[in-house]
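FORM 12-B: Structure-to-Sequence Request
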């Protein structure tokens, strides 16, 4: 059955799993059906490709079958900005209890770039830090989570790179937990999509990333009002997932969307000039160009 499915995938469209040799299963996530025998989406050949998009690398898949719906330079190595935080979250979700309380260090609270507003010495749950990481793209949240998990940011970065190898992300390397520009930090649209497929197996990720705003609290009453950096939430069935932008990386976005019939797609755009416009063009075209 497996060999027949792979033959079918190769005959009709590319498969993310066949290209990676299969996704690695992790016990924390329910990944028993990452490679599905569901009906593959059929492409309307009259809609050959979407309108031009500015992104240098693009990849889109049907989540259920993992068949590739659109691809452009998906193996090109690029800076990925705050999409780095997808791996930060993945490791924490695997290894830590969301109810665990973290004491924020001065180094984490003083992180450069985007922040959720943590204070040195503040005590806050891992779940609330994940809200700050995904919704506000807080670098302070990423560093606090990393230090709590591994004892230091340096030790956590080692774990990030080990996990990348474990997941088969062959063209990915991390140099920090946040995504600030660094020549030693890079990935590809393909690798990011593989990681995202794993991440969305955790229902808490879907719960968090589908909030346009949120308010979370520290243990002593500190209030953190969060606004999602993904302005596409609610448009075209988009329900998450993560933004990123730096001078080196350009505009980046991984998006999870559900079409009117309930079929989910994941898209990645990297090195874009207009990530939200590109993603809207791509998702709209997929809805029109494919039937399930």
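FORM 12-B RESPONSE
SEQUENCE OUT:
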């Amino acid at each position: 059955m497996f060999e027949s499915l792979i033959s079918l995938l190769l005959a009709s469209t590319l498969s993310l799993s066949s290209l990676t040799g299969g996704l690695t299963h992790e016990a924390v996530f329910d990944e028993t059906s990452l490679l599905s025998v569901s009906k593959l989406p059929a492409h309307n050949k009259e809609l050959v490709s979407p309108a031009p998009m500015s992104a240098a690398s693009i990849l889109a898949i049907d989540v259920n079958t993992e068949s590739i719906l659109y691809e452009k330079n998906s193996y090109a190595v690029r800076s990925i900005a705050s999409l780095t935080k997808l791996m930060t979250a993945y490791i924490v979700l695997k290894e830590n209890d969301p109810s665990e309380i973290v004491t924020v260090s001065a180094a984490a609270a003083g992180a450069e770039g985007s922040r959720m507003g943590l204070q040195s010495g503040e005590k806050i749950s891992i779940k609330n830090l994940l809200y700050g990481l995904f919704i506000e793209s807080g670098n302070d949240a990423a560093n606090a989570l990393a230090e709590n998990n591994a004892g230091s940011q340096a030790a956590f970065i080692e774990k990030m790179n080990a996990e990348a190898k474990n997941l088969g992300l062959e063209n990915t390397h991390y140099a920090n937990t946040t995504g600030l520009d660094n020549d030693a930090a890079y990935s590809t649209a393909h690798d990011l999509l593989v990681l995202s497929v794993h991440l969305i197996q955790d229902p808490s990720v879907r719960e968090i990333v589908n909030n346009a705003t949120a308010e979370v609290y520290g243990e002593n009453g500190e209030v953190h009002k969060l606004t999602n950096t993904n302005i596409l939430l609610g448009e075209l069935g988009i329900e998450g997932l993560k933004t990123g932008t730096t001078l080196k990386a350009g505009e980046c976005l991984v998006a999870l969307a559900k079409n009117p019939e309930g079929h989910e797609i994941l898209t990645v755009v990297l090195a874009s000039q207009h990530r939200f416009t590109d993603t809207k063009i791509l998702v709209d075209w997929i809805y029109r160009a494919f039937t399930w």
